[in-house]
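Regression report. Comparing outputs from two consecutive submissions.

Submission 1:
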Amino acid sequence: MKQIVYIDMDGVIADFDRSIRELGLSEYDSADIIPGLFASLHPIEGAIESVNQLLADPKFEVYFLSAAPWDNPEAWMHKRLWISNHFNSKKVRKRLILSHQKQLMIGDYLIDDRAKNGASEFLGQWIHFGSTSFPDWGSVMTYLKQS
């Protein structure tokens, strides 16, 4: 049976923090209403290669699980387009879930950088991306390969 892996977008595969720094902003939550922001995020180092490895691994079933800002409806579309622009569309087709209630998802792993939107209450294992235990994609991949 495949292990279900959910991967957050902002701060895990898409570098939201870099974009807000480049815009000269300091506050995370106020930046998410900027039109077009989510369409132009840079990938986080090692993210694209790592996710492609997970997508190709028969051990895993991969979904993208992200919370989109409620007051920025175009962000919902831009997140979907970002996924299609950075990954093979056939492999990721219909694998994007947008939810502010991540704890409701059923799965084995959630790779997320923040405890918000139910990530810390996820019933599988929350892999806290950017933490001391999982500072980067190399550490995440090492852990998942051993599990």
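Submission 2:
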Amino acid sequence: MDTFLKATAGLIIALVFYLILAKQNKDYSLILTVAVCCLLAVCLIGYIQPVVAFISRLQILGQLNVDMMKIILKAVGIALLSEVVSLICNDAGNASLGKMLQFLASAVILWLSLPLFTSLIDLLEKILGAI
């Protein structure tokens, strides 16, 4: 929680600098935005590691397929990353690139999910074949 509060305070300070820089030089304000996003991503890793450890424990206890869990984690990571980069594109004044990135991320997540859908269809075929 302490890291979150420090990151939030740093973000507010960066926002003030952003507002000052945006009036003078839009390029520097964009660089500041990207740098702050990268620093916040580093803070994010500290919070994500226990979640990944919990999911690994859950996977072992439930005897779930490791590959399926990896797909789910990758999909979540892609969705979060594309959202952040899309917001940066919007800040840079190019909302169409941000929207296209989100569209691409959705397609990649669907592509990643194909093994999940295949397993689901196989399971349905087994259940319906047993009837």
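Expected: both submissions complete independently.
Actual: both completed, but the second showed a warning that disappeared on reload.
Relevant detail on submission 2: DSSP finds five helices and no strands in the chain.
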